[in-house]
Amino acid sequence: MSAYDTKSQKILGSFDPQDGVWSIPFEYDPEDSNLISTRGLLYIVVDLEASPSVDLHLASKIIIDEIKEKYYGDLDGTPLQALETAVISGKNKLQEIALSNKESVSSLNFNIVSCVVWGRVLYVAQVGETSCLIIRGGEVVDISNKTSGEVMTSSGLLESEDVVLIGTKAFEQNFNNNTLIQNIGNLENLFKNSPQAASLSAVMIRFKKSMVPTKKDFSNLVSNLGGSASKNPTLPAKSEQKETTAPVEKEAVDTSKAINSLGSFNTPPIKQETASEKSLYTNKIEQPDLKRGRKPKKLFKLLGALFLIVALFFGGFKAFPLVKNKFIKTTDISVVDISGYRDRFNTLNKNNAKLEDYKSLQNDLQTELSTDVSNEDLISLIKDVDSKVQKLTETSKIEEQHVFFDFKTKNEGSNINKLTDLEDKILVSDIGASQAYLISKDEKSVEDIAVGDDYLTSTYYDNNYYVLTKNSVFVGSSVDLLKEYSFDEPLSSAKDVEVYFDNIYVLSGSKIYKYALNGDTYIQSVWADLGGDNLNSITIDGDIYVTDTSVINKYYTGEKQDFTLNNMPEDLKEPLFVTTARGDTTLYVLDKNYLYKINKDSGDFSERISIEDVHIVPQSFLLDGSDVYISNGSRLFKIGLK
């Protein structure tokens, strides 16, 4: 039966700051076995740079104490949630103290990396420029997240013989290279002898799977001892290594004594240790010297052996609360049914869900893992979800570089549903905020076009604004000179809208409605019944092109025309958006991967353009020369074509 051994070593370059720079490693093994089983083991590295008046010893203590207290004091959420909250609290507390003493603290910069090992799960939270490395199978894997001040979290499953290294920016710059494996046993000396000693700190964590005997193992042993072939039964060999609750803080040690080379760890043989030697291996405990008495008769010999085995078995459970409370579990019984979680994951993938939705699933699965650590199906699903979270996190970082404007700053419920080009400005329809905006392309200044609760969408055609509500449309050459015209028949929704020769064409549900002006009223007629539910956008040049799932349909006077896309390099990925203009021979089609150019007459594909490796699922888009504006929720992105 599997359990897990974790050994850690603090590596410190300098005990004191140098020229306003200092870093320090920290590790904490709770004495309370319940805390270990619910929150695991905590490791922190803090990197500080400040004005000479700042006491960096005190600053590091403030951060470390706050993180430790908040993390182990929060027993409601998952370990990942608690770690993120704790690191945010530590960061904020030091910033608040610095601000309240700004007369004497002219500058204070800090970076934090903290991780938790909980069973075989690794949680990491980072602020600023720090490093987090995993050495696995002879390879160094960098899983660091660089941030500009926000807290970034990640998680994953450890494998036996993994080595985790968390450290400062200087550690990464000087040691995350081809010589790391070669120098791993001598890092302490290299740190201390470096001219950047004060900036060098790390915690090295060795993770290893160990074997815990099952009841069946003991039964077999008893059977062997009592069998006729066993003439000289012997006691089981003494275990060379056991888990126990370690002292609150362990001293930094020379890693060369514990680690010979990458992926190869040696545990020293049991011997009579000195006090200093025992500090090197804080998770070993002394064992009594078991001596044989005089040889008993066979029956008493057997009974004595049985009694000793039972005593060792139950005594071991008392000695190892971590093993008892957390890791002892049969490997052939799974208590968590993951079918619902797998369906939830598949649904998220199908609906192009946001990162927050996957993180919520990730937290739920990690909670389940604490009750069923041997469920291989659960572990496999966790790996799939972790991979998705990592991919979306990386995509999110790229997306942040292309955000043109976030309309959530205007309205918390913002949800952009249409973009229209006005040369130097963009007309932005925001169904979530029930209004429209004008945003300049150069200064990003925003002008509100307030409407009301019945607002649906807006567009611009032939120097006039068209702002649609459920019961009317506002039309005018200026946002200050809009005139209201009523609809003879109300609209319930508007997926897209286009204006052509002063007639308004609205994609609503499975139909295109045409509104023609008669006096002060727009008269509704059903221009085309499309018979589909996955319609996203329309564009007009005399014909109307409609996106439907992964195809483009063409209509004229309400009738569907023969129109086929030819020579496409790959299938289009929904959702699709389409645009063109009168006199333009090209149809521009956007899916979530590329922008395609298609000849409108023949349907022949002519060019596919990548959108700078950014795969934002669009809700609307606007083509502007060599750039494309894409909306997704409240955010408007400006992305270059290449």
Automatic annotation (TrEMBL):
Xref: Gene3D superfamilies: PPM-type phosphatase domain
Q: Where is this region: Disordered?
A: 229-252
Membrane-spanning parts:
299-320
Keywords for this entry? Membrane, Transmembrane, Transmembrane helix
Ranges of biased composition (kind: Basic and acidic residues) = 239-252
Q: What is this protein called?
A: PPM-type phosphatase domain-containing protein
